[in-house]
Amino acid sequence: MSEKFNPPRLAINRVYTRRGDAGETSLAGGQRLSKDDPRIEAYGTVDELNAVTGLAGLSAGEHEALAPLAAILSRVQHELFNLGSTLATLPEDLHPRQPRVTQAEVEQLEREIDRMNAVLPPLRSFVLPGGCRINAELHLCRTVCRR
Prior knowledge:
51% of the residues lie in helices and 4% in strands. The chain contains four helices and two strands. It has a two-stranded antiparallel ribbon with strand order 1-2. Strand 1 (24-26) and strand 2 (32-34) form a beta hairpin. The longest helix has 24 residues, at 38-61. It is globular, with a radius of gyration of 18 Å.
């Protein structure tokens, strides 16, 4: 399964701003917000979920049988990146062509989850994370996503 994604539209040459930390950060439109603002917390959590999804995707990619899962996780990472971009931009500053996560992406992921669950025996209790590396990483994705 090969997905085509838009190439990045901006170049980032450094990952620091040299502005110091006065407890504020900038949104994509330049507005300053406190680092404890709910919007900053939200896109920080989305960024964290993207990182752990990447980790799970790497583990899935190590097993040929999990190639479809690795492809799904890669697509989800792109969607999470788009979601983070939307959260880092005030609604009035969103570009009309800025990629967004829509109901279509949500429904696609739900269908994929349902398809994978269909081949599993019904759960009779909660399960402890673990069993193997990919299971533990996917549980980490689940818990970050729930938060």
